[in-house]
Amino acid sequence: MRALIQKVSQANVKVDGEIRGSIGRGFLILLGVGQEDTTRQADWLADKVVHLRVFEDDQGKMNLSLLEVGGEALVVSQFTLFADCRKGRRPSFSQAARPEAAVPLYEHFVAKLQSLLPKVATGVFQTHMDVSLTNDGPVTLWLDTADLG
Fold it and tell me: Is the pLDDT assigned to residue 148 strictly greater than 90?
């Protein structure tokens, strides 16, 4: 699994002009599921995300986690995080999981976050979405379960 995480003061996702998910302070998580991904990796990634210490403490130092600040999460499926652009001009997405495998892992990741955070919103899987955000910092982080080892 791959996650591009942006610390936000607010974010929302629209489908056909209608807001389908929105959050205040927290993380916008663009989540890609790969062919080899497992629920173990989804659990590891969710735990890692909620414990990342990137929110400022009283001294202005990045020292607090999403859990500690009562932050929220907006999770948006993003198969293009598995794009391979090494050859030609058209990306290959052959390493991204097919929807029948990706949806259960995406939902597992979301459920894990929901068990830990006060609010978790989502986009709509396999749909064209318009995502808006106010990046806070800016802080943008990349996590890949391939780094799990």
Answer: no
